Amino acid sequence: MTDQTDLQTDFIGDDVVPHGADPVEKKRVLIVDDDEDFAASLAGLLELEGYQAIIAHDPLSAQRALALHQPAVALVDVRLGVGNGVELVRAFRQQSPDLVCLMVTAYASVETAVEALQAGAYDYLCKPFYSADLLATLERCFERTRLMEEKRLVAERLGQMQRIEAMGQLTGGIAHDFNNILAVLLGNLRWLQEHVRTEPQLAQMVDDALDAVKAGTDLTTRLLNFGRQEGGDTVRVDLGKALPDLMRVLGRTLDDKVSLSLELADDLHEVEVHPTQLETSLLNLALNARDAMPDGGKLRFEACNFVVRPDDARVASGLLPGQYVVISVIDTGHGMPVAVRRRALEPLFSTKPAGKGSGLGLPMVDGFVRQSGGRLGISSKPDEGTRINLYLPRAP
């Protein structure tokens, strides 16, 4: 059964929530100096201060170390035994534009400083320097790196919001036209329904067709709501009753090779959502899980009450403190690497073959959860399956 500790690691939107995760990776610094003793002494000092130091003594090995270890900061001596430190900084900036370079020199001059800054260096230190000055400069470098990463994430989120808005306008237009077609079908089918009552077989066929039209109408409602803040009419939903009903539908829909189970916590709170969107969202997640288990596997649905406190890292992702119900969809499929997981909520992004996926499934589920006042969380690793958590606010 899901509890607070089972929900300690989530990827919500663009943010990783590392509760209970592995220790934070050390800050990596590349030291490029032809003086082996100085480089080793400097690396020892940085290691004592909690940094991870990588040493290189010439430009070629330095560029290899940059590609292999991807440090955030490089300390580069101006005068190297082979090559020139300033030229190496230029090469570094071409190889990794986000790398923060610090020049280290025993021959400080205005010309040297200007040349280093023009090459792309962030700052420079003069030998000999105090360890406090070095550490303070490094902290500024890593703070700059953090701010650049935050700026990149904000730009990505803005681009994603713009794509969602554009997709909302496009799908809204398509849904409007499709609704007109459905209106004609609905009118004709209701007329037929009145005239075939004496023929049970035909009446059943018309009833099935009317059910299909209703399903099409529900789909257009989802398309119209996609990319908008309105979620339609919401009602209080008792998940203790709604989820078992959904399991019966899924039991007829999923492959026989998929083992389906449901676990509900006692005293499960009600949620206030659009019931059709909730059902179609969970159906979408179930079908995604089935596709991730081509050889069969286990699919488990869980629901439990959950409290988000003000100091919870999920708050940074927009999840307000308060009481929630978490619906978890857990599969034993192939899982997602980090690069795929980070793009999973992007509209039109799909790893499925052409014609097998639209790239709108998860973004539409995410849109439904956000419209309901919650957030969607993803926890997944390659070959370890995937857990999708829907955080839905408790009904007032």
From TrEMBL:
It comes from Aminobacter anthyllidis. GO terms for molecular function: ATP binding; phosphorelay sensor kinase activity. The keyword Nucleotide-binding applies. Residues 28-142 form the Response regulatory domain. InterPro entries: CheY-like_superfamily (IPR011006), HATPase_C_sf (IPR036890), HATPase_dom (IPR003594), His_kinase_dom (IPR005467), HisK_dim/P_dom (IPR003661), HisK_dim/P_sf (IPR036097), Sig_transdc_His_kin-like_C (IPR004358), Sig_transdc_resp-reg_receiver (IPR001789). Residues 173-396 form the Histidine kinase domain. Transmembrane segments: none annotated. Its EC number is 2.7.13.3. The modification 4-aspartylphosphate is found at D77. Coiled coil: none annotated. This is histidine kinase. It catalyses: ATP + protein L-histidine = ADP + protein N-phospho-L-histidine. Keywords: ATP-binding, Kinase, Nucleotide-binding, Phosphoprotein, Transferase, Two-component regulatory system.
